[in-house]
Design brief:
heterotrimer; A alpha/beta (357); B alpha/beta (326); C mainly alpha (292); A: 357 residues; alpha/beta; Rossmann fold; 2 domains; four-stranded antiparallel β-sheet; 12 strands; 21% strand; globular; B: 326 residues; eight-stranded mixed β-sheet; 13 helices; EC 7.4.2.10 (chain A)
């Protein structure tokens, strides 16, 4: 029996523990109105002085087997979203439904963690320097009481391209950054998860190594039938790996849709700016003017109305007063944007016009 | 041709410690007055070490430097004491990746810039302060009068990097060294800083060496690119030559790994393996173990530079073959 | 099946952490010499009865305050005519014991408190750390004297008071290191795998916080030695006629005009021991790559 078959078997075993409940049509993950504010404490008594509105009313779905890319700048809440999904941070309000089961009601946190795993950005900080690679990978399986944790660790090491006989007994500082990230991927897969959250998982790697890891991720997705949430600031990488893209700005979803549709025509002015900010790869045709000026505002006191209105070149009175809702754009295959420009009834003087872009 | 602004000849840098690291292994580089060159490479390729050598910033006890480094005709390795201080910050200055670490948290922005100006130009405090104000204007900081009195922690990341640039350019250096100055910034801020650097370079007419790992950034900011690998330059040329007609297999691999025009879901043509640890000085092509077209000669000896055109060179045995095949 | 590209053979050396520490220590002559001196002191104290020394309690009215180099008394005799060499070596037993034991005890208690406070955070942290701060507010000498004074003289009471003195600083360090480690991704990864707090602490926290706490504790041993000797000197530590360096320093004080070299001997022993402890602590710190 080959190594892969063994893995399929183990995957099947765990599937008994966390089976596919809702069938293929049921989204693997539904997030409804999720909110998380962090208090900013100060003064002698540590009183709450302000709230960082890290994630504010975020809703989205992830279908089974798809890859959802989440993009946005620092402070947009993409990493907090990841931590909320995996239960590392407790949400203030909102619902997370994993395969039809509400997390907290019919699905407890311990079971959720067998279904959802995460790979972090910093490959070094995410491995315990005092544990051998084998022990790090086997730890989760041990905790969950799965059979033969070391055997699992070895077959996964093999699968991510690290020969167990050479690497099992090494320590994290003895291997390269790319190898460490493979270890982190193996550790996440050791729990036989169905959803893997990749939080800037390839961002710290060198470009040549990044491509290797992206290939590996694509293979693993196919082989284990995984669903990915891929968080990154690199639009090229997100486009390559994702089926749909979700764009966040200051704790809110501003646009979500199929990658092709977004790539062809970004509906939200912020998404458009983000795309124009990508360095040009054509030396004869370099970027002439920056799409936006200034830095993203502080999420402690986000602007009123549409949070992007302070930097938006289409800003109108309505943008400052009323926050736009996420609306589906007609005929775009589920492409949604939260912008008054796309709502003819919003009262924005340029609403519905196509010639302004 | 005028004397070059920077001339590095056969530079070798070794770090000693528990184990020796051969960081730079025979690097030649020239930069003309007013030129912008991007040093493109991955971590450990020696690009940052090259910059530090130019500023004589390497720890003398742990590093061995050989070879010639001349900036504007001055032998940098011979500079000491006062002359070195005058050179650093006056003739050449540097912009770092993390402005939060490079700026002093206990002084206001204005105090830091004016202090540098007073030290190098010997002008009065008022005059230095007005230079500082002028610099903040030039780096397009809104309401600069107010910002002069701000401390670094009161500024956003992009603002801080602008201040860092203002500080670096306040004494009108002939050479600006930039070490990944936009890597820590958000995408929409990165492009602003890149365009700002491009404008200021034109305005001040200085030479710029811009270290980056991101090809896109190199394209936006520089007119020439030198690709580094394992402590050596493997290919050099104008930006459009490197982007449109890369000759070294490593450059080709890097361009492919940028994913700029890869079809979705298509298997990536990844360079296998990882860069060498450089515990020994390479005696053969360092890239050969990862190279798809390496032959026996690549593993046997170091490739010399093949000059394809004036100031267009590539260190590869197969460069001419590949060119002939096209 | 698409095999992941076989990856590089970056030949990393295999070496355990402690092997590296030991080899760095071996290459540090100062630390090695100090370790040897300490080992000599400790071994001679332990094996004092087998060294053929004179009885450290037996005095002689006629042979009082003999100078260094007296035949039969190589280091002279004290104010009651007891052999100084024997008393210094026997004195090492008590002095080293009450100099080191409180730090060892405080290391355990402080580490547990600090790790719990650092890992749990929130209310637990506030309660533990503020309580510790109250003790921390007093200078250590004052606190030791106050507790010892309240408990009365005696070896056990000295141990208790010194342990209490050293728990707050060790708790502080343990808490600081733990909250640092707590914020690292591997702790999150472990939590995300469903491990309980106790498991995470056992597997992932302890191994990574213990060495900096240990290094800090070694730097406290010399302070503790001096404090213990100081308590005895003040008469609220070890009671006569037990040989103990601090106490000996006190009783020989009056002889300082008669025989200054002799009365300085216990002080010299305290000095050498605490110096060696300090230097060893520094050496261990750099060998373990602990930065603070």
């Amino acid at each position: 029996m080959s190594m892969t078959d063994t893995l399929h078997d183990t995957a099947a075993q765990t599937a008994e523990g966390l089976p596919d409940k809702g069938g293929p049509a049921q989204p693997l993950l539904i997030v409804k109105d999720m909110q998380k504010y962090f208090p900013v404490r100060g003064g002698i008594f540590g009183r709450t002085q302000a709230m960082v509105q890290a994630v504010d009313g975020v809703s989205f779905e992830v279908k089974k087997g798809e890859t959802l890319g989440i993009v946005g700048e620092s402070g947009c809440g993409k990493s907090t979203t990841a931590r909320l999904l995996i239960g590392l941070t407790e949400k203030d309000s909102g619902e997370i439904i994993f395969d039809g089961q509400g997390v907290g009601d019919s699905l407890n946190l311990r079971d959720l963690r067998r279904g959802v795993q995460m790979v972090f950005q910093d490959s070094y900080a995410s491995l315990n320097p005092r544990l051998t690679i084998e022990e790090s990978i086997a730890f989760g399986a041990r905790v969950q009481g799965l059979s033969d944790p070391i055997g699992r660790a070895h077959s996964l090491m093999e699968r991510v391209g690290l020969a167990p006989e050479r690497f099992a007994q090494r320590y994290p500082h003895e291997v390269s950054g790319g190898q460490r990230q493979r270890i982190n991927i193996a550790r996440a897969l050791a729990m036989s998860p169905r959803l893997v959250v990749l939080d800037e998982a390839v961002s710290a790697l060198d470009k040549s190594v990044e491509a290797q890891v992206l290939n590996l991720l694509a293979d693993l997705r196919e082989e284990f039938g995984l669903t990915y949430i891929f968080i990154s600031h690199d639009l090229n990488v997100v486009r390559y790996i994702s089926d749909r893209i979700l764009v966040m700005y200051l704790g809110e979803v501003v646009e979500v849709g199929p990658v092709v549709s977004i790539w062809e025509d970004q509906a939200h002015p912020y998404t458009r700016s983000l795309f124009s900010a990508m360095p040009s790869m054509d030396p004869e045709n370099r970027t002439k003017t920056p799409p936006l000026t200034g830095d993203p505002p502080n999420p402690i006191n986000p602007p009123s109305g549409c949070r992007f209105h302070t930097r938006c070149r289409f800003v109108d009175t309505v943008c400052k007063e009323k926050a736009p809702a996420l609306r589906e754009l007609p005929g775009r295959g589920g492409h949604c944007a939260a912008c008054h420009l796309h709502d003819p009834d919003s009262g924005h003087d340029k609403a519905g016009r196509e010639d302004i872009w | 041709m005028k004397a070059p602004l920077v001339e590095i000849q056969d530079l070798v840098v070794r770090f000693k410690g528990d184990r020796t690291v051969h960081a730079i292994n025979g690097l030649d580089l020239t930069l003309q007055q007013g030129e912008t060159l991007a040093l493109l490479g991955e971590s450990g390729s020696g690009k940052s070490v090259t910059l530090k050598t130019l500023l004589a910033l390497l720890p003398p006890k742990r590093s061995e430097v050989e070879g010639g480094i001349a900036v504007n005709g001055t032998d940098v390795r011979k500079l000491k004491g006062k002359a070195l201080q005058k050179y650093r910050g006056g003739e050449v200055s540097m912009v770092f990746q993390d402005p939060g670490l490079a700026l002093d948290p206990v002084y206001t922005v204005g105090a830091q810039i004016s202090e540098a100006v007073m030290r190098h130009k010997g002008v009065s405090r008022d005059e230095a302060m007005s230079t500082a104000l002028d610099m903040l204007r030039r780096v397009r900081i809104p309401s600069p009068e107010r910002r002069l009195k701000n401390y670094p922690h009161e500024l956003s990341g992009g603002m801080r990097q602008r201040v860092m640039i203002a500080l670096a350019l306040a004494c009108r250096p002939r050479l600006l060294l930039a070490d990944e100055p936009t890597t820590a910034l958000d995408a929409t801020v990165q492009i602003q800083i890149l365009l700002l650097l491009r404008e200021l370079q034109r305005e001040f007419g200085m030479g710029v060496i811009f270290v980056t790992h991101d090809i896109g950034v190199a394209v936006e900011v520089s007119e020439r690119i030198a690709v580094m690998y394992a402590g050596q330059i493997v290919e050099e040329g104008t930006t459009s030559e490197i982007i449109n007609n890369p000759r070294h297999p490593y450059t080709q691999g890097l361009l492919a790994a940028n994913l700029h025009d890869v079809a979705r879901g298509e298997r990536l043509n990844a360079i296998p393996g990882a860069p060498p640890p450089l515990e020994e000085r390479p005696t053969a092509c360092s890239f050969a173990p990862r190279c798809p077209i390496a032959g026996p000669e690549c593993r046997a000896s170091l490739p010399d530079f093949v000059t394809l055109a004036p100031r267009r060179r590539v260190a590869c045995f197969r460069a001419l073959e590949a060119a002939a095949a096209e | 099946m698409a095999i992941a590209e076989t990856i590089d053979a970056a030949p990393a050396q295999r070496s355990g952490y402690w092997a590296g520490v030991a080899s760095r220590l071996r290459r540090d002559p100062v630390t090695m010499i100090c370790l040897a001196v300490l080992a000599l002191l400790i071994l001679s104290a332990i094996f004092a009865p087998f060294l053929g020394l004179q009885d450290p309690y037996k005095g002689s009215m006629i042979a009082r305050l003999k100078p260094i180099g007296t035949p039969g008394h190589p280091l002279g005799t004290d104010e009651q005519g007891r052999d100084m060499l024997a008393r210094l070596i026997y004195g090492g037993r008590l002095t080293l014991f009450i100099g080191l034991m409180p730090v060892v005890l405080a290391f355990f208690v402080g580490s547990i408190l600090g790790i719990v406070a650092g890992y749990a955070g929130g209310m637990v942290n506030t309660v533990i750390m503020r309580t510790v701060d109250v003790f921390f507010a007093f200078p250590s000498v004052l606190l030791a004297i106050a507790i010892s004074g309240a408990l009365g003289a005696g070896i056990v009471n000295s141990l208790v008071s010194l342990t209490i003195v050293f728990i707050p600083p060790l708790t502080r360090v343990a808490e600081a290191v733990t909250s640092g480690v707590r914020s690292l991704d591997y702790i999150d990864a472990a939590r995300a795998s469903g491990a309980s707090a106790l498991t995470v602490i056992r597997v992932h926290v302890i191994g990574n916080v213990l060495s900096p706490i240990f290094v800090y504790a070694t730097s406290l041993t010399s302070v503790c030695m001096i404090l213990a000797a100081g308590l005895s000197f003040l008469g609220i530590g070890v009671r006569p006629p037990e040989p103990e360096w601090g106490l000996m320093l006190n009783t020989l004080r009056s002889a300082i005009y008669v025989n200054p070299w002799l009365s300085a001997l216990p002080g010299l022993m305290i000095f050498i021991t605490s110096l060696c402890l300090n230097l060893v602590s520094d050496g261990v710190r750099s060998a373990m790559n602990v930065h603070d």
